[in-house]
Amino acid sequence: MKKTKKEIFQDVVLTIIRPLVHIWMFFDMKVKINKGEGVNFKTKKPYIMLANHTYLFDVVQVPLRWKVASYVVASQTLFTIQPTKFLFTHIAHIIPKSKGASDLRTARGLISAVKKGYPILIFPEGNSTFYGSTKYIEESTMKLIKKLKVDVITCNVKGGYLSKPRWATGKRKKRRAELNYELTITKEELKEMPMDEIRSKIHKALYNNDYDYQRMKMIKHPGKTLAEGLENVIYICSECKAINSIKTSGNNFECTQCNTKGYVDEYGFLHGFKFDNLFEWDKYQKPFKGEVEKEVIKSSGFLNFLRFEDDARIPVGEVELIYKEGKFYFSGALDEIVELKDIRNPVITLRRDLSFDYGDRHFIIKLNRFGASLLRVAQNKY
User: Are strands 336-339 and 252-255 parallel, antiparallel or unpaired?
Assistant: First the structure.
């Protein structure tokens, strides 16, 4: 299968700008590379590379050292905003995927890319981690691996989460990440390997808990606003079980109900509450879904509708979103009641953008607060 003229043009442009991207990434974060046996950055053979998703720019760092530019799977919502729309459409090799949904079009695009000799890169969690550990991996990824019949390379990214936490509104200094590349399954092994074994190998190769990694490395990430943003991911107080009661300022945070006070240290660990990390805190708060569903949750935000036929983002305006008894109540620029039982593919994109399908429309609301609890009442997957 031959490459298109557009693909050949993109290959040339990507080769030209690669040194500039290296410089950009050098100043963003210092990265240590560990290359396992059988991993060849100069290979021209197609392969599938899988990586855990720890921070925003690992999508740039992971494929950067490979000579042949990969086709990368990215959220379709990113095609609706500039400058990513221009970059994804005209410069990089990108295949869109609807977050949270199985997409046959995506699979066909990846199969076509491999037939043309391209490697492909997938972050099978679909979302970068909010709580520091590798999460749900789409089952469709395992089926795709079996179908493609090429080498499976994994890149386990460590350290990126605490360097640039997805929830954080403030920057950290001295950012570090470690990229560990392994040839996890050869194409010869893949022929006879049962699906359960593929699944087990991939899960083992990609699993990472950045808090465990940090306990070994103890890398300092100083900053002046280390706690800000926690109120968007912690929705149950570990001390009094109050819902959406966390308030942050600078490096400090507190519960407005029981007045417990804490802080985030320069290593990323929490102090003053029951848990010193968000991984354990999230495990604690997830069983409270029933209690959260009984609450009234309010957040303002800016609503857009996405139109994927032409990758357009249609502004609606400022809205007040209220969750109550299984429904989203919109007021302001949109006056509508949305039944949660009728929405599809609810997910948080970027830091706090709640998106979901409802009828023939795709909602995306840039929330001002309480993203995690609003997502929790809408789904059980993440």
Answer: unpaired
